[in-house]
Design a protein that fits this description.
The chain has helices at residues 44-52, 94-104, 109-122, 138-150, 168-185, 196-202, 220-225, 230-235, and strands at residues 4-15, 18-29, 33-37, 59-64, 67-68, 79-82, 156-160, 188-193, 205-210, 213-218, 240-248, 251-254, 257-260, 270-276, 281-285, 293-302, 307-313, 318-323, 332-337, 342-346, 352-360, 363-366, 369-372, 384-389, 395-397, 404-414, 419-425, 432-437, 446-450, 457-459. By secondary structure, the chain is of the alpha+beta class. A hairpin with a 2-residue loop joins strand 11 (240-248) and strand 12. Helix 2 (94-104) crosses helix 3 (109-122), helix 2 (94-104) packs parallel to helix 4 (138-150) and helix 3 packs across helix 4 (138-150).
Length: 460
């Protein structure tokens, strides 16, 4: 059995009333390269800071090498952290920056010189010992920061978006160097980034986070090819995510047609999400070559390695397709999807469902608001009920009108012919409500949320 160097058990972290980590459970094997991936504000850096000791978890335990380090100060933990801004000492040269921790620990001068030379060789900074750190490029400063972090041989190296400040070419070069360093050192790396390509390139294991919760843990291949939910599918690379119906095992209906697939274990006629990667849709000129369905090219952009095209199908659904060949705008095309290239996922939810309380026979309270509903026979005021609202019955408006509440758009998913949005209310418990709309919104837009009485279904 492989040893866990890090065990994170039921860890939560709150700042005031705002909970940024929600019951996180995660283990890291010794020598593993684990990347914590997610959008800004998802809690990934907070989790790293809890491991490092710069933040104290509100609940739960963190163990390193089997020992609970929850109350151990940062400088006594067997970890070192590399920050995005490097945090080098500007008044010290490269040698003294790297040697600083060993000098504090009163290591002998000969041993210090030997170890500094070794780590500078590992990071490709030999012959830079006497250089002023402020005269170095961003990539060179990052190498020095990594050398300083590994000089005292920590059990775990924590890296908090270490390449974010570098330009694209330098970032890609440093990715390869960090991967090689991990292989050379045999040390456990825990790496935080919002860059999906970086996570897939570097990692043994990827941990995808959103809104303070882990969405999926897996190898880069699993995360990309078998996303656990719509958020992961949308966040990792490009995806077409469409509504579908599972007719039976290995047979799914979407885009107005039936397709073979390899997925099973669903109920008959179960509503599902279908994921199509843009590179997995085969495109041919129509009508010369027959496909499973047809469409019209509305956009074609050269992306360096491939062309990115948008196709409107005859079913009025928009698909992104990536291909090495360009198809002119306006062209009629035939499209083919192989069964093995389809990924069918269970829907996380089929409707909005809330715990609610009846105020009287015509009003119900949920989302910290009293809403008008149709008369409810036999249900008295104060009775606890469930409320269901279909996604397409949630009206979103640019302003907050009478009978509406305010919310903030926090997740946008294009579903081919409409957008599926998560809107977080701005008052009370800041609960979320989901809406389907034809209109385009941006992340963090403020909107009004209105629900008509006839669209509120009440269940005792």
């Amino acid at each position: 059995m492989e040893k866990h160097i890090i065990d994170i058990r039921n860890v939560s972290k709150s700042f005031g009333e705002h909970k940024v980590l929600k019951n996180i459970n995660l283990y890291v094997k010794k020598g593993e390269f684990v990347t914590i991936l997610g959008p800004s504000g998802c809690g990934k850096s907070t989790l790293l800071r809890c491991i490092a000791g710069f933040e104290q978890a509100t609940e739960g335990d963190i163990l390193i090498d089997g020992k609970d380090i929850s109350d151990v100060p940062p400088h006594d933990r067997p970890v070192n952290t590399v920050f995005q801004r490097y945090a080098l000492f500007p008044h010290l040269n490269v040698y003294d920056n790297v040697a600083f921790a060993l000098k504090i620990a009163k290591v002998g001068k000969d041993e210090i010189r030997k170890r500094v030379s070794k780590v500078l060789k590992i990071v490709g900074m030999t012959d830079y010992e006497d250089r002023d750190v402020l005269s170095l490029s961003g990539g060179q400063q990052q190498r020095v920061a990594i050398a300083r972090a590994i000089i005292n041989r920590p059990q775990v190296l924590l890296l908090d978006e270490p390449l974010a400040a570098l330009d694209l070419k330098m970032r890609k070069d440093m990715q390869m160097e960090i991967k090689e360093m991990h292989k050379t050192l045999g040390m456990t790396f825990v790496y935080v980034t919002h860059d999906q390509e970086e996570a897939l390139t570097l990692s043994d294991t990827v941990v995808v986070m959103n809104e303070g919760e882990i969405q999926q843990i897996g190898t880069p291949t699993d995360i990309y090819n078998e996303p656990a939910n719509a958020f992961v599918a949308d966040f990792i690379g490009e995806s077409n995510i469409l509504d579908g119906i599972m007719l039976e095992d290995k047979r799914v209906h979407f885009l107005g047609k039936d397709f073979d697939c390899v997925d099973e274990g669903f109920e008959k006629s179960e509503k599902v999400d279908v994921v199509l990667r843009p590179e997995d849709i085969y495109i041919l000129y129509a009508p010369n070559l027959a496909g499973q369905f047809e469409g019209t090219v509305t956009s074609c952009i050269f992306k360096g390695v491939h062309y990115e095209m948008w196709i409107v199908t005859d079913d009025k659904c928009e698909l992104m397709i990536q291909d090495y060949n360009a198809f002119e705008v306006g062209s009629r095309v035939a499209l083919i999807i192989k069964a093995s290239d389809l990924h069918v996922m269970k829907k996380e939810r089929l409707t909005n469902t809330f715990d609610a309380v009846m105020v009287d026979s015509n009003h119900v309270e949920f989302l910290d608001t009293k809403w008008e509903c149709l008369p409810q026979e036999g249900i008295s005021g104060g009775e606890e009920v469930k409320v269901h609202i279909p996604f397409d019955k949630v009206d979103l408006m640019d302003t907050v009108e009478d009978g509406a509440i305010e919310g903030e758009v926090r997740f946008i998913l294009f579903k081919g012919d409409h957008y599926h949005l998560r809107v977080r209310t701005t008052s009370g418990n800041k609960d979320s409500i989901y809406a389907d709309t034809k209109y385009v919104y941006d992340d963090r837009d403020l909107v009004g949320i209105k629900i008509l009485p006839q669209d509120i279904e009440i269940e005792r």
